[in-house]
Design a protein that fits this description.
Layout (H helix, E strand, L loop, with lengths): L1 E3 L32 E5 L21 E6 L9 E10 L2 E13 L4 E5 L11 E3 L3
Parallel strand pairs: 1-2, 3-7
Antiparallel strand pairs: 2-6, 3-4, 4-5, 5-6
């Protein structure tokens, strides 16, 4: 797996309008993004995708990704979940399907590229 540890990914980080990021390929690609794959979230980013709506224009992006569901509680369990991307008052403006695995001491996420990233509209998986 790869690690997502960029501190600007944290849900408490606002948005740096001169250098914001997408979890996708292109000129606004997040520094810790390696394309569709398994990822573990680590400090200083955080350790998990939040299970509650993240305010838009945070995580150094316009649209903020949050887990619309719960994390698996059984060790070695892998579940399918939906990540919603909050923007302009619509808590699920875009969505994508992911997998989440409980590895005991940490979580792993199979994350695809975010649904869009163009024309300065950035979209990113957030952490806490």
């Amino acid at each position: 797996y790869f690690t997502l540890d960029d501190d600007t990914r944290n849900k408490n980080y606002g948005r740096n309008s001169t250098h914001e990021f997408c979890d996708n390929f292109g000129r606004e690609q997040s520094p810790d993004w390696h394309g569709p794959n398994w990822y573990r979230m680590l400090s200083p980013a955080g350790s998990m995708i939040p299970e509650t709506v993240v305010e838009d224009q945070h995580c150094n992006s316009f649209m903020t990704g949050w887990l619309n569901g719960t994390h698996p509680t059984i060790v070695d369990e892998t579940v399918n979940r939906t990540v919603c991307f909050n923007w302009l008052g619509n808590t699920c403006y875009h969505e994508t399907e992911i997998q989440v695995r409980n590895c005991g001491d940490y979580l792993l996420y199979y994350l695809p590229n975010t649904p869009i990233c163009h024309d300065g509209i950035t979209i990113r998986y957030c952490s806490e």
